[in-house]
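Q: I'm writing up a methods section and want to include an example of the input and output format. Could you take the sequence below and give the corresponding predicted structure tokens, formatted cleanly so I can copy it straight into the document?
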Amino acid sequence: AGAVIGVVTGVVVLSAKMGTSWINKRLTVSKPFATLLAASVLLAVLSSVDPNVTKPSIPAITEASLQDKTNLRRCVLRLVGTIVTIGSGFSMGIAGPAAEMGMVIAKAIASVFGIVNAQSVAQCVLAGAGAGVAANFNAPLTGAVFSWEVSRRLVSPHDDRTCVPSPNPCCICV
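A: Here is the clean output for your methods example:
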């Protein structure tokens, strides 16, 4: 399951990066005012469809993923919003949405593979988040450290001495 999570997440994040690049090169450079206006309207529509689209937070997203509250529709809306936002020249990073995409993909792949054990699902979700970050920065070790950090904070958010290693197939797969 880990290899599939890494590959699928890598393809989705790469597609998002290519989409932002395409919008930036084709539209923002040639028609900056029209692109900013259209992007603003589209982002307002996305926010009206789902108000939670504009509230990204890695710890909140991770906890929602682990508690079976993931929302594929919200993830797709956030992906579209991310592509439009970054491609149009607005200030935003893709690391958070990439991690969320990885978590939602990992949750779906875990269910396809029949993984139901809560700890195994959590490991898949954390590996998906790491795969998203790794694919975004083209740095597998960064994804592994990110997953480790998130898993450590979930177990004990106020204790800096807690070390909980997490298996991270994103290191191998992306």
